[in-house]
């Protein structure tokens, strides 16, 4: 059998690429190893007898451009959260940041720091970043600009200082020179560390690249809640792909990819039998390191992830010692032990093979924005999603499940320091009487999703510009392209890698 395009992997980026190409009249086959498509963008019901559809891996949407949604006719509802973040402080009221910072945010900064200075700095800092996002975001669906072109765009919109802070100097320097309060500094810094194992002062600017992608999605940087959970996002992509004529084969383990620039061949196993298909182009939705192995090569680099994902079902929200309404505190990002010094201390501990007593992480309650993922019974049920930082696979290597269980206990203990009601008293029970808590380590992601090192970005994030041009999806072989999170401008639930790979095949036509 011969297809115009064979896509290896059925994640959200692969489905985006397939849909664009099929709509352009190409014959497209998508091969997915698992029994369902979607990769990390899926929902699951992990607790026996409990009707809940958790976003098991990825959980919020920021980078998915409205243009892709419109182009493909996706019927998605992405809701804004009521607040941006809340950071509890032992013995204090904590720091509340509204989605659009106003009087309540100003009062919270004043109560935390004793003056209005820090909030004024916050407003100026993020105003510059907003102008940067407006200038840079539209380029993500076009051929790569050069570094000089990107600098001109950013500097014209936001000023040379913003360019230097984001693209030339370690993120920690910009944070330290702008803000004085340790808690405020930490709230800013976390966007540079989600899924990224590095120091905020590292000269390789890896934190800066992570920070950039967390702030430019859709020119606003807002992280929104997908109504129905991440499974709803994949469901829509599947619908439009199938309607366009894409052929999807699940349970298909790709074992070999050969391409010579003119023709290609892909071998896969299904139901114990080997199949071989020919193609004009192959698009790889898998990590670049996985693609290297499928081509019979040693990976040029081995990615390292750095996170723990914990999903919890509550039968009620816990009360906070600060007196802040939990429906407000958990609606946005709840920063747990994420001051600037906490984050740097955690990084130093992790590279020495240790886990901090109170590891940094952040959580939010999906059901405060979208209750549809939990059935109406029991009344008051809510989900809580926690994303832990600075937890590389080496920490789990000796005893993955044991270290994971210990970390879950540490995170819950860290949360309890801020609660009136111990979190264990609020956790729902499944049909067997077990607590409704599940966790996924980097080693779990490597096994379950074939993400090398559990790296959720398939490798280190890269700048959204390159002097060599192209779409940021090219390999050393003309008819073999990367369409997943490992593409330049990849990472997160965005579809950008898929879109750009399709445009590279189509010659830029939409």
Quick recap:
By secondary structure, the chain is α/β, with parallel strands linked by helices.
Q: Can you characterise this structure?
A:
The protein is an alpha/beta fold and 510 residues long. It has a domain at 2-41 and 227-301 and 458-506: FAD/NAD(P)-binding domain. Helix content is 34%, strand content 17%. It contains 17 helices and 18 strands. A hairpin with a 7-residue loop joins strand 6 (83-87) and strand 7. Helix 1 runs parallel beside helix 17, helix 4 (117-136) crosses helix 5 and helix 5 packs across helix 6 (160-167).
Question: What attributes does this structure have?
Answer:
single chain; 510 residues; alpha/beta; FAD/NAD(P)-binding domain; seven-stranded mixed sheet; 34% helix; globular
């Amino acid at each position: 059998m011969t297809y115009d395009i064979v896509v290896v992997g059925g994640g959200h980026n692969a489905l985006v690429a397939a849909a664009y190409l099929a709509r352009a009249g190409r014959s497209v086959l998508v091969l997915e190893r698992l029994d369902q498509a979607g990769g990390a963008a899926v929902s699951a019901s992990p607790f026996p007898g409990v009707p809940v559809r958790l976003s098991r891996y990825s959980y919020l949407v920021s980078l998915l451009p409205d243009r892709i949604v419109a182009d493909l006719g996706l019927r998605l509802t992405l809701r804004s959260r009521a607040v941006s973040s809340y950071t509890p402080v032992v013995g204090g009221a904590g720091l509340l940041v509204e989605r659009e910072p106003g009087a309540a945010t100003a009062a919270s900064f004043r109560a935390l720091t004793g003056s209005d200075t820090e909030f004024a700095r916050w407003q100026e800092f993020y105003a510059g970043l907003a102008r940067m996002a407006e200038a840079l975001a539209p380029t993500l669906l076009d051929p790569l600009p050069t570094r000089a072109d990107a600098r001109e765009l950013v500097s014209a919109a936001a000023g040379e200082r913003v360019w230097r802070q984001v693209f030339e100097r370690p993120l920690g320097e910009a944070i330290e020179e702008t803000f004085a309060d340790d808690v405020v500094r930490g709230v800013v810094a976390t966007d540079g560390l989600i899924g990224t194992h590095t120091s905020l002062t590292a000269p390789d600017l890896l934190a800066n690249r992570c920070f950039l992608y967390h702030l430019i999605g859709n020119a606003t940087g807002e992280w929104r809640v997908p109504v129905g959970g991440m499974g709803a996002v994949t469901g829509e992509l599947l619908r439009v792909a199938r309607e366009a004529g894409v052929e999807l084969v699940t349970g298909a383990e790709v074992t070999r990819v050969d391409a010579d620039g003119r023709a290609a061949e892909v071998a896969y196993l299904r139901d114990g039998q080997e199949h071989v298909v020919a193609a004009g182009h192959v698009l790889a939705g898998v990590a670049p390191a996985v693609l290297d192995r499928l081509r019979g090569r040693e990976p040029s680099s081995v990615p390292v992830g750095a996170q723990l994902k914990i999903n919890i079902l509550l039968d009620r929200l816990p009360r906070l010692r600060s007196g802040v309404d939990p429906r407000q505190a958990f609606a946005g990002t709840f920063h747990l032990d994420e001051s600037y010094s906490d984050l740097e201390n955690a990084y130093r501990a992790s590279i020495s093979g240790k886990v901090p007593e109170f590891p940094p992480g952040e959580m939010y309650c999906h059901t405060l924005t979208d209750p549809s993922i939990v059935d109406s019974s029991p009344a008051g049920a809510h989900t809580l999603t926690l994303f832990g930082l600075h937890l590389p696979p080496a920490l789990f290597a000796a005893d993955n499940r044991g270290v994971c269980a210990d970390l879950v206990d540490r995170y819950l203990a860290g949360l309890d320091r801020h609660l009136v009601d111990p979190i264990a008293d609020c956790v729902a029970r499944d049909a067997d009487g077990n607590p409704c808590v599940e966790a996924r380590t980097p080693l779990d992601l490597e096994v379950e999703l074939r993400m090398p090192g559990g790296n959720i970005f398939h490798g280190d994030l890269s700048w959204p510009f390159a002097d060599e041009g192209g779409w940021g999806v090219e390999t050393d072989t003309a008819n073999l392209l990367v369409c997943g999170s490992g593409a330049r401008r990849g990472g997160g639930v965005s579809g950008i890698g898929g879109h750009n790979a399709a445009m590279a095949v189509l010659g830029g036509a939409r």
